[in-house]
Amino acid sequence: MRRNTGDHVLAAVPLAWLAVLFLVPLGFTLVYSFGTSGFGSVTLGFSLDNYAQALGPLYLQTFLRTLAFAVGTSIACLLFAYPVAYAIARRSGRFTVVAFALILVPYLASLLIRVMSWQILLAQGGPLERILRAVGLLRSPLTVLDSLPAVVIGTLAVYLPIAVIALTVVLDRIPPEVVEASQDLGARPSSTFWTVIVPLSRPGVATAALLTTVPMLGELVIPVLLGGNKGLFLAQAISTQYAQSQNYALGSAMVVLLVIAVGVIVALLVRLTRGFDAAGAERGAG
User: Fold this and answer.
1) Torsion angle, CA of 81/86/92/93, rounded to 10 degrees?
2) Domains of the chain
3) Bridge partner residues of 41 (DSSP)
4) pLDDT of residue 279
5) Span 62-82, mean pLDDT?
6) What is the Cβ-side half-sphere exposure of residue 114, based on CA atoms within 13 angstroms?
7) Hey, what long-range contacts does 108-112 have (CB within 8 A, 24 or more apart)?
8) Residue 100's pLDDT band (boundaries 50, 70, 90)?
């Protein structure tokens, strides 16, 4: 009985923390989204005008662009991360710790420093332009900075290590006996990879997608520094409504729509991993 009470107390601490720092502010945001905004104030009520404006021609394109950017960049991140994770999990052997250390090295610096370093690299007259000119791949000035490609490059650089680690953990847990059984039955290495390893790595793919797509939906620092703060994505539009226009009701409606999009993505990823709980339990029992 005492142990159960202690467990409940320990569980209540993070639950209370989550409620105070996440659920309560989200509740206020939801209430404000139905209100009427003045300059720096909100009159409470029930109106769908803010959602109509958030989904209107002015902001709908930004919302769809944000979704497309997050999903597309996350897919690109997975495509780059999967070969690296596979090599670490299945081929690195005793150098696994070294490989993990190299992947985590960028996280010794803050996000702001990492993004600003890409701002320097991609600038006109910067190191990247000089290198491309030296090898004859560039003749005109480099105009990548303050554009969508620069935002994609910076986002990939920031989130790629997260995807690699999530995929490596799952790939490393695939039993070697399963792979050997496939090869003993005459499957070629490519067939084993696509029919055995890739399906069994679905939880890692879903986790990596979750850890990259969701933060990308609300990414603000990278678009501001590498995209020129041109209002490319919804996070910048929300920041403008809160900080400059002080239209809290419209900004809250945008936040709610973003949370709904996150919920849909999470539900799809949970569906992708359906059936693996039972498999994991059977393996643990074995």
Assistant:
1) 140
2) 49-273 (1.10.3720.10)
3) 38
4) 40
5) 94
6) 20
7) 111/158, 111/221, 112/221
8) confident
- Entry pTM: 0.83
The first and second tokens of residue 197, run together, are 């390893």
State the Rg of the chain over Cα.
23
pLDDT band at 141 (very low <50, low <70, confident <90, very high): confident
Q: Is residue 63 within 8 Å of residue 234, measured between CB atoms?
A: yes
pLDDT at 156 over 90: yes
Nearest C-alpha neighbor of 237 from the set 194, 133, 247 = 247
d(CA 27, CA 35): 13
What is residue 37's three-state secondary structure? strand
| CB proximity list for 120: less than 8 A, separation 6 or greater | 126, 127
Tens digits of residue pLDDT in 35-67: 988 877 888 889 899 999 999 988 999 999 999
The string of DSSP codes covering 38-78 is ETTEEE-S--SHHHHHHTSHHHHHHHHHHHHHHHHHHHHHH
Q: Please give the angle made by the CA atoms of 201, 207 and 209, to the nearest 5 degrees.
A: 100
- What is residue 3's predicted lDDT score, i.e. its pLDDT? 57
Give the bridge partners for 42, in sequence order.
37
CA–CA distance, 35 with 37 (Å, rounded to integer): 6
